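Notebook B, p. 112. Complex prediction, attempt 2.
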Amino acid sequence: MPHRTCRCVVGVLSLSRMNNYLDFEQPILELEGKIAELKRMDDPQLDLRDELKRLEEKAEKLLKQTYGKLTPWQKVQVARHPARPRFGKVLSTLFPDLVTLAGDRCFGEDAAIIGGLATFEGYTVMVIGQERGADLQSRLKHNFGMAKPEGYRKAQRMMKLAEQYGLPVLTFIDTPGAYPGVGAEERGQAEAIARCIDVSLGLTVPVLATVIGEGGSGGAIALAAADRVLMFEHAVYSVISPEGCASILWRSADHAAEAAEALKITAQDLLRLGVIDAIVPEPLGGAHRHPDAALHSLRLALNEQLGLTLKHNPAERRYQRGEKFLAMGRKAA
Amino acid sequence: MSWLSEIVRPKIRAFVAKKPDIPDNLWHKCGNCGEMIFHRDYAGNANVCHHCGFHGKLPLKRRLELLFDGEEYTRIELPKVPVDPLKFKDRKRYSDRHKDAQTASKEQDACIVAHGLIGGQNVVVAAFNFEFMGGSMGTAVGEALYAGARLAVLQKAAYIVIPSSGGARMQEGILSLMQMARTTIGVQRVREAGLPYIVVLTNPTTGGVTASFAMLGDVTLAEPGAIIGFAGARVIEETIREKLPPGFQRSEYLLEHGMIDRIVTRKELAAELGKIAQLLMNKKNRGLSSGTQAATPQLFLSTAKKA
């Protein structure tokens, strides 16, 4: 697989800044810096092809090694990577004909949760997801993916509409958590999340949820009470952020890596625990290196999972969804 | 160490230091107004301050006695679930913390289920014990709440849930988060059976507990002055960097903002619950609506009977 290279390498530092390398990617970064430098030399008298090939193979091996055994805390960083494809990218790639819907018909419009009607595999579907934004301006607009009650009530409205028209519901989760604020509490953040779970579990249409980045606590499960819950290979899903857990149980956020380990937040752990149903493979080096390949993988997974949920009749589907959640944790994994 | 220091000296000390039989907690100091109340008066008033009406912590057993007619109720045995599914360890093992809580409380976990009569109405009550790891919700609690829902359906009884919880039990990781969905399924089964689901919010009810079954009551009551909310006050303060409004997240504040139906004092609670259950289960009203559009009651009832 080709590597992302940078033609205008000035030095290791600027490359790091441009490509948003993570700390543990440092050795890969250095190799890729060397490769880029060699390519830049482009001296016809020197045959660098062998050396280049050797370095590229080495870089790929290193990438494979690193990403093959990411620690839970490293996965948190990958899941939060600024270049990771966000929900907006999912929408534009997988649902280009999206007709957005807005507002909760109670109080307002919340840009942390967006979505609407679209076509997928020939079906009209309801797409709902959390957007955390790609740059500072859009992050502010979408409140970093932290929804307020309006967002969860909008989601409920969209789910009910989906039920009314027999539309499969596809949700995409990427949030640090529901927004903790005075206004959010006043307008019933807890009730909005509770009712969202209630509505979702009551649907008879298929519900597919995918954790594409960070699945943060109650704000995440509000959209993930689904027939099939999918997770990107390096996404995380947790009851509390590792930092939050560490500051409570270890009395210091410095222990976040330990907390991440103990909480069992990776897709691989959650599949083992029976909490999620499938893992969506990411391209080598994470979705942030090859967003398009990641989204292609997502499309295939959704297609397959939708097919599975369509096998049941509506009442059965709803019943099975409930039974799936009830079975969780009853037997030792 | 000789037998002198090990056996004789403590015996002498115990003999000399023998104190008259007076408990040191004859007086209770109100957590709100600071007034001293004679402990028997305090207990006789259901741990409510005579001076300011502050509702103090109430032991679970006492709460149940106060609720049920003639102080009579039957507790049900709850399904066993694996403890410590993640083998969680922070500065201490979760399995040890859990064992300590069991020893201290003589309970299996933070939620118990009982049935009996309140105001002559058949009810099932699921109540939280805040003393058990902050009433936090893990798989055992979720299982208890679901067992209560199932019992209510089988007995055609009203289901009353009395949470007191800091939220999800993070030592059970993602499985504690899943309880938000599992408990909601219980609520749906009760709703589909056409039975009342009543929540009594007590101090404190926060986090994942509030954001699931606790906010889904057909009728929602709260004890006076209880802290009820989603995010903790400190988290909110740190996020918005502002002082919180007075009375923030208290029962009265929630009533004002349309989040609960009524604030009911401990003394009036049993009567209120009986009344509400009776109003919602009036036989004369049967058949006046087509009922909840339940999608699954048949499927559910057939499995419920088997279990």
